[in-house]
Every structure is written in C-alpha cells, then in structure tokens.
UniProtKB/TrEMBL annotation:
Domain Peptidase S54 rhomboid: 70-204
Alphabetized PANTHER family for the sequence: RHOMBOID PROTEASE, SLR1461 PROTEIN
Principal localisation: membrane
Protein localization: Membrane
Keywords attached to this entry: Hydrolase, Membrane, Protease, Transmembrane, Transmembrane helix
Name of the protein in question: Rhomboid family intramembrane serine protease
An individual GO BP term: proteolysis
Pfam families: Rhomboid (PF01694)
Organism this protein belongs to: Rhodococcus opacus
UniProt membrane topology term: Multi-pass membrane protein
Amino acid sequence: MTSSFDSSRFDSPVPRGGAKPAPKSKPLWLQSAILIGTFTMLLYVIEIVDVASDERLEENGVGPRSIDGLWGVLFAPVLHDDWAHLFANTVPLLVLGFLVLLSGIARGLAATGIVWVVGGLGTWLTGGSYSNHIGASVLIFGWLAYLLVRGIFARSLGQILVGVVVFVVYGSLLWGVLPSAPGVSWQGHLFGAVGGVVAAWLLSADARKQRARKAVGPQSFG
C-alpha cells in the first residue's frame, strides 16, 4: 500500500464564518530595512549614553587575552570611540547589513551572529596587549566578505552579481585587514572578514548538498 505526501495538510486552515484572514507579512526588503535601520538607531542611542557617561561605556570593548576582556566580544560591535567613528561606519553598515538581510532574515541574522563571534574571538586572541577594540567595523568587514563569497560557495549567479557590485563599491575597504595606522583595529577587520567567509560556507551547505545530489543523479535498484 502506498501513499503520497500531501503538503496541503500543512497549509493554514481556511477561515470560516466571520473569521478574519491572517494579515500579510511585510515584504522582505521592508523587513530588512526596518531591522538594519533600528539596529543603526540603537548604535546612536548607545553613543549618546556613552557621551553622557563620560565615555565609560566604550571601556567595555574586547581586551585581548584578558578574562574580563571577553565580555567585549558581546559589546564591542555596538560601541564607538566618538561620533566621527560612528558616522564613518553608518553608511556601509546600512547598505551591507540591508543586503545581507535580503537573503532572508533568519539567514542574515545567523550570518551576523557568526561574524560577531568569530570576529570578536579572533580579536581577543590576536589583539595587542592592553588594547581596547570597539566598533561596528567588525560587522562591516564580515558582511562584506560574506556578500563577496557566498555566491561562489552556493554557485548562485544572482549572488555572484551582487558580490561583484559590492566589490566595485566597497572592495577598497579590504585593505583595512592589513596592519595600518595606530588606533585602527585591523585584527577586528581581519577576523570579521574571516567570520564572513565562515558564515558564507556554513550557510551555503544546503545549496552544496543539492548540487551533490544532482551530480550523483537518481539511483535505481533491481
């Protein structure tokens, strides 16, 4: 006896009587814009609090190889040295964050989480002794790397084209992963980018598995 899978069994029930249909969800682009816009506004609120507290908040960045400095892995990306630091990060944060979230909110948040942790831990392990690393640039470099390589891992033409455009506009930022001027956390830039590559690899696993199944093809048994 055989039976076929009926996906309609999992569809939402048809409303009866005077029941109102479920409201339509916002389009993905609008959800992405609201989410990254809200996050950016949060950074400005935090900077206002930091200024009001005589810049004590920014002392909670990544402190390399210090147990207390590990807390900075959580806090560093939302802290900035001053308004100029935050202003410099705002536009790339909005643009790259929006593009990452356009791949799906859950996927975009997962990529951000991976970048956040890998970038922070890498900075904690390799940063200069007694230094303090803060700034959303770890996310910017992570998102940039993610957008550049995800299409290659997933072999998605659309994602590759997005990566090309992103490289043309923001590719020059990649020089920031190299040691440069004092006071610039190139370690955060470097390991943020590493986190972006890791995220792209991990989150393209489903596409790679589908490709592998197609390569093997259907199997028949006699």
